[in-house]
Structures are given as structure tokens and as C-alpha cells.
Inverse folding.
């Protein structure tokens, strides 16, 4: 089996910053409550002309530029998202066109906030078997579009964003290990109805927004992240202590801290940006990964553990070694692609 390496990375967030002070004007909450219960100070929100597709395209273009490849070399575009710009076609179809991957296949993958881990795991299989050579994996969500802005239990937590990587076959580093689980008996803890669902379950107001059992998910999340981190370490044969950086799903700083405590991982080995972006769902882990590389927190030879959980209820983890040179990489300003979807 061939090894899998990340050769390009990129992120994209909308320009519009929404602070806790702005949310205080919408629902009965406070900056103090949001910060102390979740660690979040602000999040980004898509403007009228932005969508999951525009963010995914921008993040994807940056990843392709960093990988120094021609987009026509890409064999497959996998977009992990739950906030499709349209129900049909897949948002990946717009992204394939938008990044110029004209020889690629493309599909969306819905595994909620665990989606990027699942997508990278799927891509790794195609590369490892030799079926494909270069794959663009993107995690992106515009959760602001499915929020009930009158529900203080959810609207304070989420934001919009995207992250992307290019993966290719290579000889360096440790083999990528994946652990992925789902417990469908808890599937109703975090849902968004669909107009195609059972008629009796359609919301009377036809508003398709998130409903969530926050405290139940909190308890599940800590256990799930601990389980996934331990299991993926067993699979990779590498002790948790020997990882240089853990990148968790950025749902809530308290969940991240509780899982780190249980795993005895010091917080200086855990990357967080939830304070600035909130929970960007599928975008969360790749956005944090790309930002960590650009912030100099990841260098060649570092061992990285990605760990997440989400609706489903799904959870998982993935280990890899960072094999790309980071020092010379400079992000050039690529303008947002013309609105597609
Ligand atoms: O990608 C996965 C997505 N989902 C998650 O990650 C959610 C995980 N869960 C959480 O992050 C936390 O459960 C929350 C942040 C949602 C809530 O924090 P909590 O510490 O579990 O608070 P709680 O739900 O137990 O609520 C405590 C109190 C309640 O008031 P009473 O009953 O004690 O009087 C709530 O009504 O806080 C109240 N409350 C709020 N107060 C001000 C709930 N939301 C808010 C709010 N502002 N936004």
C-alpha cells in the first residue's frame, strides 16, 4: 500500500465577523455566558453572495496553489458538508468546476462535523490502493443558513468556514490511520429536517433549522473524543504522547479541555480557534489544520492527530505525519471565485 501525504492546504472564512455583542441583540444571552460556556467570542457569517460553495472553492484553490499542481491533475474532489448550496446537484459539482479540476470526479460526503475526517479517510484509500493519484478534500459549512436565530441554545455556537487539503501518494512519514464510528440510536440528538422527509415531521413553518440536545451532546462528545483518540493511537501503534499536535473538532472549548484532561494531553499540544470562528461543522478541523500550519504550529516531521464528533452521532480520529515544507509556503491572495451556487 502506498503512503498518503498532504501536499497542499488552505482555508476560507467569510469577511463578516459577528461578535457576541451582536448576538446579545438577537436573543436573551450575554457575552459572558457564551464565553464561559463555550469559549466563543466571535464567528464569521456568510454574506448574501457567499455560500458553502464560494468558501469551498476559495479554500480549494489555495490548497491547490500550495501543492503546486495543475488543477487538471486532480482525480477527485470530495466535499464534506451538511449545508449544500442546492439539494441538487452536489455542491462538489460547483467546486470541481470552480477550482478548475476538469478531469476530476466529484461528490459530497455528509458525516456532519466528522465529515473531514471521513473524507480524508476515503481519499486515503483511493491513494493507498493506487486507484487515484491526487485528491482534493474539503470540509466546509455555512451553518448560519440553518440556524434558528431565535434559539439561544444553538445560534450562539455556530459559524461559517472552510478548509481544504490536497492529498497525494508519497514515501515519507507514517501511514495514515483512521478510526470512524457512528451510533445511530442517538441520531435525533442533533437534526435538521428536510423538505423531502416524512410529511408528518415537516416543520409547520417550513423552516429547516438545527435542533439540538446540547447537554446530551456535550457528554457524548467528551467520551467520543477520548475513545477516538485512544483507538486511533492503538491502530497507528504510536503513543498519544508522541503526537506533536492534536487538532480537535472546534465545537466548544470546554468539550476540548475536558477531553484533553481525560487523555492527559496538555492544552499547549491542542490547537484551538473556536474562540474566533465558533463551530464551523465540517469546516472546523481542516480550517484549524490550515491555520495551524500558517501560524507555524506545524512543521515538517510533526505527527498530527485529528479528532472529532458530530451529528449521527458520529465520531472519529485520524493520524498523519506532516511531510510538506511549510516555511517557504506563502499564501497568495486569491480573489473569491465568481458566485456559483
Ligand atoms: O458539532 C456538534 C454540535 N453541538 C455541540 O457541540 C453542543 C455541545 N453542547 C454544548 O456545547 C453545551 O451543552 C451548550 C453550550 C449548548 C450549553 O452549555 P451547558 O453548560 O450545557 O448549559 P445548559 O444547556 O445546561 O444550560 C444552562 C443554563 C440553562 O438555564 P437554567 O435551566 O439553568 O435556568 C439554559 O436555559 O443556561 C441557559 N442557557 C443560556 N443562557 C444564556 C442556554 N443557552 C443560553 C444562552 N445564553 N445562549
Amino acid at each position: 500500500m502506498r503512503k498518503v501525504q498532504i501536499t497542499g492546504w488552505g482555508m476560507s472564512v467569510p469577511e463578516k465577523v459577528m461578535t457576541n455583542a451582536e448576538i446579545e441583540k438577537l436573543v436573551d444571552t450575554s457575552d459572558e455566558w457564551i464565553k464561559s460556556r463555550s469559549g466563543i467570542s466571535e464567528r464569521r457569517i456568510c454574506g448574501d453572495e457567499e455560500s458553502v460553495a464560494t468558501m469551498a472553492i476559495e479554500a480549494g484553490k489555495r490548497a491547490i496553489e500550495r501543492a503546486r499542481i495543475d488543477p487538471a491533475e486532480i482525480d477527485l474532489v470530495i466535499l464534506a458538508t451538511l449545508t449544500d448550496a442546492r439539494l441538487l446537484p452536489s455542491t462538489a459539482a460547483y467546486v470541481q468546476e470552480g477550482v478548475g479540476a476538469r478531469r476530476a470526479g466529484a461528490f459530497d460526503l455528509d458525516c456532519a462535523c466528522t465529515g473531514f475526517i471521513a473524507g480524508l479517510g476515503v481519499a486515503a484509500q483511493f491513494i493507498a490502493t493506487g486507484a487515484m493519484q491526487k485528491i482534493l478534500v474539503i470540509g466546509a459549512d455555512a451553518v448560519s443558513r440553518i440556524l434558528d436565530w431565535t434559539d439561544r441554545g444553538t445560534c450562539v455556537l455556530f459559524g461559517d468556514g472552510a478548509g481544504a487539503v490536497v492529498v497525494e501518494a508519497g514515501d515519507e512519514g507514517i501511514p495514515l490511520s483512521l478510526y470512524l464510528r457512528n451510533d445511530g440510536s442517538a441520531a435525533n440528538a442533533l437534526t435538521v429536517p428536510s423538505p423531502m422527509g416524512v410529511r408528518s415531521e415537516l416543520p409547520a413553518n417550513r423552516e429547516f433549522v438545527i435542533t439540538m440536545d446540547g447537554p446530551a451532546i456535550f457528554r457524548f462528545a467528551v467520551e467520543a473524543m477520548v475513545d477516538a483518540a485512544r483507538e486511533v493511537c492503538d491502530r497507528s501503534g504510536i503513543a498519544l504522547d508522541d503526537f506533536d499536535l492534536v487538532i480537535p473538532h472546534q465545537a466548544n472549548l470546554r468539550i476540548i479541555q475536558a477531553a484533553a484532561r481525560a487523555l492527559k494531553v496538555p492544552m499547549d499540544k491542542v490547537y484551538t480557534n473556536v474562540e474566533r470562528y465558533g463551530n464551523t461543522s465540517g469546516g472546523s478541523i481542516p480550517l484549524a489544520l490550515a491555520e495551524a500550519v500558517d501560524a507555524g504550529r506545524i512543521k515538517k516531521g510533526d505527527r498530527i492527530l485529528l479528532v472529532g464528533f458530530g451529528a449521527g452521532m458520529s465520531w472519529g480520529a485520524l493520524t498523519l505525519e506532516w511531510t510538506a515544507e511549510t516555511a517557504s509556503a506563502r499564501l497568495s491572495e486569491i480573489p473569491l471565485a465568481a458566485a456559483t451556487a
Observations:
- Confidence is low (pLDDT under 50) at residues 328-341.
- The radius of gyration is 19 Å.
